[in-house]
């Protein structure tokens, strides 16, 4: 009988009890797998929360954790949460509850630390118990029950986000507990599953930005490897760009100036000249400084800056304020970008703020050059460089616009050189000082100066427009004037909803103030008889501006709209969905004013839901794991968005189809809507075709339409493939977005390091994306350790991802090679198929076990798919290479792949060298074994041996033992985290180490890793005489008979000196032949480097 129940991993399960099993997991729907570190509780799996390697990746539908995570040290919490995430299937979730420290603090403030707060099944609970751990247990010496980390809703939320969960919902239960529902992938309709009716914690926009940015900073700190590769690149330049930077300083402050100069001194590529422009003479500290020049300005700081920036021979010039700082690679990144794009005349970067505490916050990850956004507010700048020849030609900065002089300069560059002259380095290179700057005018005056600069720009361009202050603070709204002769055709294709159609038509006729338009409505055979009758009636009204088209046949989505366009008479086409309704009289005038501007191909408005929230507001390519999605959906009307982008006009790469305004001739020249797509996907395809050249799309929030429609069938995943095939390269970097912003949450800082800005845009090394099956065991030895070493030795750029990436995310990474370890679940094989279809990278499948023939006693066996052989075969069929750990494994699977390579296991010197265990440390010889709970069958080999020698040796076991042999042990040590494992193994001070293996085909294919771990520590070894332990290793091999094991152990211990020599010989063997750093060529060859 097939068990179709979903599986929930109950971590830290404790004793069997219905009271500890959440009611969401109904027994007739869910199968419980119990996991606990305490073997006396008889769990299904003995393991810690921080090392669940026995549970395969992607094998669980849910993880249930009740009052466990607080028992971990703070540094262990991220590891545990990543383990929760790792074992979940793509649609899986974790349900977590733990103490609410914020609520408990109220008891402490009220001086009720030891007062009973509530009664649990185990007895009374006070604040003291919730903070430090249940005293009934901790006072008896049970350290497992101590609490080591506290959480509030905020810290729990961000801990889960940092671990990589895509959607997190945290609730406070109104008493003393937090409840979190954390999804591995963002579901269409996320739900909090705790079963409590309390408010869901929602971090503020500023908090999201701040905390997400802290995570980003942790992942983007400069490394030795990054600096080395940048320096190599500098040496390869045929000519080094000469950069002249002027630091504008209005008030004496040596401390702030020193911060700027200090950050410049750390540059990989120093500006050729740094000049301080100030209205005062330098202090003694700077008077004889050979790092910079000093120019004393008169009353006009900008006039002097113009002079010094124009006189010194340079390729690029720029300004910054004293006190501002620069990333170490700032000028290298700008110079590299300029060299790679010789058509650029101005290049700018992203920036953040140095707050009053000296920390960095408020990152501004900007879009690529966006003319409409530039006309909304001055987003270009900090840090920006301009071609010196163009700077001279423009006359430099205009002193009339002091304080917004850079905004005025950018507008003039746009006029002279065009939008294509602007380049953007999507990296955070500039750190702007809070309350810094060289102009002391109030903000209101600066905003007004900016408005004047924008108005002057429009006037110079001959654009008829009025500039007023926008809704978002310090922003502008341009009201473009429209000539009366500009005409429009409002085109509506009726669907089957008559009420929506009537509302749409009537709102157009009643609300539209612009007089020069026609209304054309089409109903085909699929619309329904009532709709067709209504449309025919419209045509019979005798109203010249209304035309009706009633088709006898059913028309395809694109065919209907293309036919309407062909029959329309207006200069502009307004495609309007029948579920829309007009809500403001100037809607058409506003849209036509923007659509009539030079270089604008199409315009779209903001669409609102019936509840007043935003439905669609422009579109970002690849957002929400879809081909295209709106970034501000479901937000309130007044929600500003990231740097106000929900409230200002801007250019997007795609616009929704519900209301799309496009010049008639442009639409005809484009070929119209493509028959392969419908709905928003068709509009996105058209949008991208329209912007292949210099034309752009514009979105405005100053027109809002009601939209009652839902996503159309064309947005179903089955229809996405053709869109990806056509546009994936464009989607990888949407110019309206930023690669440091997440595609999983609109305008959230990207916290997955593998997906944010590429530090090596010139691609100096092969780029390898690796997907380890776990963070311990085989994932460490066979994926993470080689990856680290290849990165450190500059032989490859290896990027680690534990998440399944969407096609667009994979295009962001753009790997040459993808290495996937033990991906044998159906959803994992589906992911490989997507990588095959869209990534174009060389695909390597990695395996280190004979997973199709596992021992009956293996703890891993129950978690493998029942048809694992089928899925392994499917995965290998779509991979280019198969890498295994042993010759035996290669022989066993030779029939499954034509290119199978062996890359043996090695030890990483940084982890293992320098450890020196003691010998003769016990009263009796110390004999030990190290293993995990997946080694039950192996331990059975020596169970009787342990009993026989219990009085002759001090048995030391590490990682696992059974109840049967525990009384015989001198010491038992629980498993530790991976980073602590080498030192812990060395601390056992063994005189002899045992490596038993059950005789089984699975073990015949295993590797020699245990011999290496023992050997590098100088432990003499007795091992089962089995293939992985055969060869020239200086160890003693025995058959799996009790008498052979006992005899070999006694023989070793009879001569301590000879035993020690055996350990020395094994250590030398491992150090000379089996260290990873000496064999990176093996991994290069295995991964096709």
Write the layout of secondary structure elements.
Layout lengths: L5 E6 L18 E7 L8 E2 L13 E7 L10 H11 E12 L1 H9 L6 E5 L2 E4 H6 L2 H4 L14 H11 L3 E6 L4 E7 L21 H15 L4 H13 L6 E6 L5 H12 L7 E6 L5 H4 L5 E4 L4 H11 L4 E6 L3 E2 L3 H11 L5 E9 L5 E5 L6 H4 L9 E4 H7 L10 H13 L4 E12 L9 H18 L4 E5 L6 E5 L7 E6 L4 H14 L5 E7 L5 H11 L6 E5 L6 H11 L4 E5 L3 E3 L4 H9 L4 E9 L5 E3 L3 E2 L6 E2 L29 E5 H7 L8 H12 L5 E12 L12 H12 L35 E5 L6 H15 L4 E4 L6 H7 L3 E5 L4 H13 L3 E6 L20 H10 L3 E4 L2 H6 L7 E3 L6 H4 L13 E5 L5 H13 L5 E5 L12 E3 L7 H7 L4 E4 L5 H4 L4 H8 L4 E4 L11 E3 L3 H13 L1 H18 L6 H7 L3
Can you describe this structure?
By secondary structure, the protein is of the alpha/beta class. It folds into 5 domains: 6-216, Vaccinia Virus protein VP39 (Rossmann fold, 3-Layer(aba) Sandwich), CATH 3.40.50; 238-469, Alpha-Beta Complex (Spore Coat Polysaccharide Biosynthesis Protein SpsA, Chain A); 488-731, Spore Coat Polysaccharide Biosynthesis Protein SpsA, Chain A (Alpha-Beta Complex); 759-902, Rossmann fold, CATH 3.40.50; 913-1078, Rossmann fold. The protein is 32% helix and 21% strand. The strands form 8 sheets. Strands 10, 11, 12, 13, 14, 15, 16, 17 and 18 form a 9-stranded mixed β-sheet that branches. Strands 21, 22, 23, 24, 25, 26, 27, 30 and 31 form a 9-stranded mixed β-sheet that branches. Strands 3-2-1-4-5-9-8 form a 7-stranded mixed β-sheet. The longest helix is centred in the middle third of the chain and has 18 residues, at 443-460. The relative contact order is 0.06. The model has no long low-confidence stretch (mean pLDDT 93). GO terms for molecular function: S-adenosylmethionine-dependent methyltransferase activity. This is Glycosyltransferase 2-like domain-containing protein. Residues 490-614 form the Glycosyltransferase 2-like domain. Residues 30-96 form the Methyltransferase type domain. InterPro entries: Glyco_trans_2-like, Glycosyltransf_2, Methyltransf_11, Nucleotide-diphossugar_trans, SAM-dependent_MTases_sf.
